[in-house]
Amino acid sequence: MTAPAETGQGVRAYGQVLRLPGARWFVAAGILARFPRATLSLGIILLVSATTGSFASAGVVVAPLVVGMAVAAPLWSSRMDRFGQGRVILVSLGCLVLAASVLLALVLAGAPFWTWLIAAFVTGAATPDLTSAVRARWTVLAPESQRGAALALETIADQVVFISGPPVITAVAAALDPAVAMLGSLALGVIGGVWLASQRRTEPAPSPGPARRRLVLPPLGVVPIALACIALGGVFGAFDVGMVGWAELSERPWLAGPAFSALAGAIAVGSIITGARAWRMSPSARFIGFAGLAAAVALLLPLAEGTAPLLFVAILALGLAVSPVMVSGILVASARAPEGRVTETLAYPTAAMSLGVPIGGVIAGAALDATGPAAALITIAVSLACATAIAAVGEALLRAARR
Description:
Blueprint: H1 12-18, H2 23-33, H3 35-52, H4 55-83, H5 85-109, H6 113-125, H7 130-141, H8 144-175, H9 178-198, H10 223-249, H11 256-276, H12 283-298, H13 300-304, H14 308-335, H15 342-370, H16 373-402
Helix pairs in contact: 1-8, 2-7, 2-8, 2-9, 3-4, 3-8, 3-9, 4-5, 4-6, 4-15, 5-6, 5-9, 7-8, 7-15, 8-9, 8-11, 8-14, 10-15, 10-16, 11-14, 12-14, 12-16, 14-15, 15-16
């Protein structure tokens, strides 16, 4: 599968897309707006574990939150396509503040545990995927030759939040209170979301369509990549659990944080490289090819887990290999989005990855308990192999259906 080469201009491509009218402002707003999706899970873990003394209970409460996010993200995004981003973002942020406040009050008041689960699901369902809203603006603003750099820039922004968010919220929780940390993350998200909603000139025009759809289902062209992104999300869930288990069993629990930062930093650097160069392979071919390469690289993790420096080298290599997969998946979704459904279509890969994170974490946790950290780290390679196979089979079926 090949496509015309995308225009590659090195790192100057990022400066050029940021000089497009209004681009810098919605990029900055989008970084702040990402904080709830990036840190709410950690905030709830810190809050519930501090309240109950049980990390197991915290994990149970986080599960419905993540499911709510994954289920509702395309629904919010489809409403943005229909009614405009500004209106829907403000409504969703109001719902999020209300739901998160109820959850916080229930936990602090010691309400029955089952009410926490319901409130967590509602909080997740009220959390809009503002990453897809920002990416949809790029599909309108950036010409096709610059879209690869623009969407790579968004992957970099994701990693900036995931690198900075968890340490900050953990530090605030330790210095002040977990409730304060959770509210602070929520406040940053609301500020960024309101700022993004106010930038009406760069948002895609609403597309009411001839009739309102009763069901929100993904376009057929994005289904293979979305399903593969469930397995890709499992990579990050397995990595989190595997690294925590490795660090604790090595009697160096503090090493887990640097490991997370190393992976995120390598993904950010890899995304810069991916967006700055010209490619002759189509985005779907890059997704499949680099997912297979990343699966092979991930096999180095269990081999190197006995030596910390070697393990960190393997983590950096994994991040560099995974970054083109993430950027390519978003490019596939943007290219196959039907008219009037851009924001919704871009939400499916993100929602799928969110759904895969707890699945990968559970599988890696079982492997960790049964055998040790090496087995947990092997699940990362297995998840990437599954992503490769799902995408390859799905793309083949799509081509057959089109013929």
